[in-house]
């Protein structure tokens, strides 16, 4: 038998959880089904140990504010990313107040965001960045120092036994940063959806998507463990399946997916739970990426709070696997190839030799070499205190470009059919942190006729919906202050 539904969400990550939560709130009479191929939700990229949980607000991510050829710094992208994260915080705050989410400390904790750089060129850049951002309301409270004593107070592990040399260093700090356990957040959202009547089917792997004559979609799924195969007929389909989203969108036959491919990049972290070390560091400290490294590989030393336990992560170190998901297939990288995306992918390989050299260099690093990299942040690091932890897979978008033939895109992108009946998400960071903004954009694109009746409730859920905070300092202070209070975010 074929089950008829209004909405089918494919993938049990933060994106499907966010979209499902919004749709069930806005349209409670709709029948929604979620299909997740693994035995539980939040086991791939949304899992806490598969991502850094930074809560991307552009407070410390230097790649969101590159220096132009003339030396100027444009804060526009950094501000836009921060605005998007503020929407996520507002929704979570409302859901906490309404009892949908548990106590804030179960998924979000105040953790200062810092930058630490060395060398005259990077110090000058960081100083310029600070001078630009300190004038922006959403970056209020940013601090800057080149004084080792001040930096030691902010993050002692950065300065202990650091040898004095001619090389200058500098740091910035934003006390209002956060650490987010997206795995816990995702599980809580799906638990609420189940309580609201949404079927969350695990061990359910969607294999085919076929458009019907009336515009609906027929999804064929197989049961991976103890589930009978079947079909679902859906008026709307969202594919939030990580790297597999590309494969399913290709199988759907929508022309909008033509020219797209993905390049999988894995990762590893160095992790320590040694209480004596963990107690000396309460921050997320980002630096500059090495030459040729992708933005997602910017080195950082992070405080993580997962299931109530605090630990430190350092990395990420790039690895390579042909799989699009941690639990994917080794044939993924080959089976994505089509006539329409072959040249764009080849052009990306030709145009990015530095990335390939970087990946080879990363693959040659053993445990000791990785701890050596950590010592550029933490001079006192000892090999025996740190263990290697495999992170998730990131499927970076490759797509057709009219000028270059093909480009490698870092970030997230929603691909939507012309009639809005199906959409899928491709890409990686800062996806999870900006899930609410991404899903709001999807609602406008796929359900334009519904937006007038939904906007009132959306404004209740997200007070800044439809507006921006940064141009309105007083409103920004009020709304960010209220969300910080509800989410118990005190540095």
From TrEMBL:
Its cofactor is FAD. One of its GO terms (biological process) is tricarboxylic acid cycle. Pathway: Carbohydrate metabolism; tricarboxylic acid cycle; oxaloacetate from (S)-malate (quinone route): step 1/1. Keywords: FAD, Flavoprotein, Oxidoreductase, Tricarboxylic acid cycle. InterPro entries: FAD/NAD-bd_sf, MQO. Transmembrane segments: none annotated. One of its GO terms (molecular function) is L-malate dehydrogenase (quinone) activity. It catalyses: (S)-malate + a quinone = a quinol + oxaloacetate. Its EC number is 1.1.5.4. It comes from the Bacteria. Belongs to the MQO family. NCBIfam families: mal_quin_oxido, PRK05257.1-1, PRK05257.1-4, PRK05257.2-1, PRK05257.2-5, PRK05257.3-1, PRK05257.3-2, PRK13339.1. This is Probable malate:quinone oxidoreductase. The gene is mqo.
